[in-house]
Q: What sequence folds into this?
């Protein structure tokens, strides 16, 4: 919509401990380019072409700048320092937002995000305040209890992805809360501030690169 400011906070401040690679997974190569470049490119080339705020651990700022130079990566972005947990990295990214607008938070390590999902997430957030991308469970689901396990209705189970998109005032207010260990994503932070979360249909290809085998899968999806 004309006059509306769009942002994408790309969080890449993690160390990738489960990947067990020499460099954090957001810098590993996928089809000869770092994972992070695919992710930024997806948002930059989207219809709303948001201002990109990239959050990386301070230790990797120069490393990233060198990568940009080697790969001739020129998409404009603001580089911000990461924090202890994902929560703190998002909070740092939010400090860079000066004008109200619509803010997507996206994991640096979800490079296979589609244009369709990005567009529908920004659109819904603009209309109703938030949009959290999710996919319905494909498998049967059981919950482990103190006494055994219990079958859950999978029609009611959704797996949450990113982007998670919000009106900036909603997201900034939510991130004024103290950190809690159950804040594993932005939706959990915003929900605790009293806002109802609205899901939108995601894509099973929008995987989060977490373990070594995920690199091959992402490579296949991007080819
Ligand atoms: N302090 C942190 C921790 C995580 N992230 C980012 O949040 C996203 C999702 O986190 P995850 O996949 O858990 O990444 P890591 O924390 O790097 O991985 P691990 O948990 O295996 O150490 C990633 O893009 C990661 O870089 C971040 O910006 N700042
Ligand atoms: C934000 C997220 O990607 C939504 O699925 C997820 O919660 C990140 O979790 P992680 O433990 O930091 O990988």
A:
């Amino acid at each position: 919509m004309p006059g509306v400011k769009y942002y994408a906070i790309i969080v890449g401040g993690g160390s990738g401990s489960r990947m067990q690679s020499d460099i954090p997974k957001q810098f590993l190569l996928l089809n000869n380019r770092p994972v992070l470049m695919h992710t930024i490119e997806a948002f930059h080339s989207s219809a709303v072409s948001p201002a990109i705020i990239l959050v990386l651990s301070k230790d990797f700022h120069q490393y990233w700048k060198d990568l940009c130079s080697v790969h001739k990566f020129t998409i404009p972005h603001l580089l911000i320092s990461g924090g202890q947990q994902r929560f703190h990295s998002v909070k740092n990214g939010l400090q860079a937002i000066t004008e109200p607008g619509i803010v997507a938070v996206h994991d640096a390590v979800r490079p296979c995000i589609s244009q369709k999902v990005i567009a529908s997430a920004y659109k819904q957030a603009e209309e109703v305040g938030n949009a959290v991308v999710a996919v319905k469970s494909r498998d049967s689901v059981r919950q482990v209890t103190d006494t055994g396990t219990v079958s859950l209705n999978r029609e009611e189970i959704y797996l949450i992805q990113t982007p998670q998109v919000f009106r900036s005032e909603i997201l900034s207010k939510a991130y004024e809360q103290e950190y809690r260990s159950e804040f594993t994503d932005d939706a959990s932070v915003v929900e605790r501030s009293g806002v109802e979360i609205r899901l939108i249909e995601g894509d099973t290809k929008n995987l989060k690169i977490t373990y070594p085998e995920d690199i091959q899968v992402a490579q296949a999806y991007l080819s």
Summary: Residues 86, 107, 160-162, 184-185, 208 surround LQXTBERG (ligand 2) (CB under 6 Å).
